[in-house]
Amino acid sequence: MTGYAAASAGSPRGTLSLELRSVNSRFLDVQFRINEELRAYEPMLREAISARVTRGKVDCRLSFGQEPANLSNHLNPRALERLKALAEEARKAFPRAEPLRIADVLRWPGMVAEEADEEGLRAASVELCRRALDELVASRTREGAKLAAAIRERVRTMRAQVERVAPLVPQAAAAYQDKITQRLREAIGSADEERIRTEVALFAARTDVAEEIERLRAHLDEVAAVLDKGGAVGKRLDFLAQELNREANTLAAKAASAAISDLALELKLGIEQVREQVQNLE
């Protein structure tokens, strides 16, 4: 399901901002865009998101806004010594190379050390993630309720189509009996009652869809029950949609008349629409 949430809070290094965006996906896929100095918080964020979201592609962005003016920065002595040693080795290998500029030194990873409360920053990140997840889950829940209502409406339509099939089967058998009787009279001038009964019995066995109708009813009942239960229903409904499609295909293959065939095709169309909606449910 789609959703968006954002949260921000002050921190020793400036305004800490977190954004969560989610789009439809059959499985959970979490992608991160995090400032390098906050990269250590990625496992914590991944665990928190996975605990609340089980389906969808989630984009998580954690970054700093404007830094406060009174933040105290200084050069990292270890990084400085390491850079000096590397520069000496490089100068031996490349005697004519230009010396390092101040800007190059300052851009070296880890060169500028910031005095900040790491524990406080981690706690702020955890709280931001909780707030953003609350907002994201609430947004996805509202969308899920709308999708569930749409699926229920389609289930009602499909249930009516299934019920329309049952009375058409004996009508098709009666029509076949009339047709075979007429053909025999045209061919031999009389109707062989024993042969007619045999042909009709074979036709009825070949076109019997009682089991398919019962299974379709049972699957539709289960879809309604899963929706009523709530929670993470996407994968269960996806499986039920596949089973419904299987029975609809069999119904279409056994169709004893054009009317039954048309209903089977309408049923398959409704199932496909449900499958598309189910992909968006968690």
In a few lines, what is going on in this structure?
By secondary structure, this protein is an alpha+beta fold. Strand 1 and strand 2 form a beta hairpin.
Describe it for me?
The chain has 282 residues and is of the alpha+beta class. It has three domains: 88 residues, Ribosomal Protein S5, domain 2; 41 residues, no CATH class; 134 residues, no CATH class. Helices cover 63% and strands 15% of the residues. It is built from nine helices and six strands. It has a four-stranded mixed β-sheet, covered by helices on one side. Strand 3, helix 1 and strand 4 form a beta-alpha-beta unit. The protein is elongated and about 110 Å long.
Relative helix content:
55-70%
> What low-confidence regions span 5 or more consecutive residues with pLDDT below 50?
none
User: Percent of residues in beta strands?
Assistant: 5-15%
Radius of gyration: 34 Å
Notable characteristics:
282 residues; 3 domains; alpha+beta; four-stranded mixed sheet
Topology:
Elements: E1 3-11, E2 14-23, E3 28-34, H1 42-52, E4 56-64, E5 73-75, H2 77-93, H3 102-107, E6 112-114, H4 118-165, H5 168-188, H6 193-206, H7 210-229, H8 234-253, H9 258-278
Parallel strand pairs: 3-4
Antiparallel strand pairs: 1-2, 2-4, 5-6
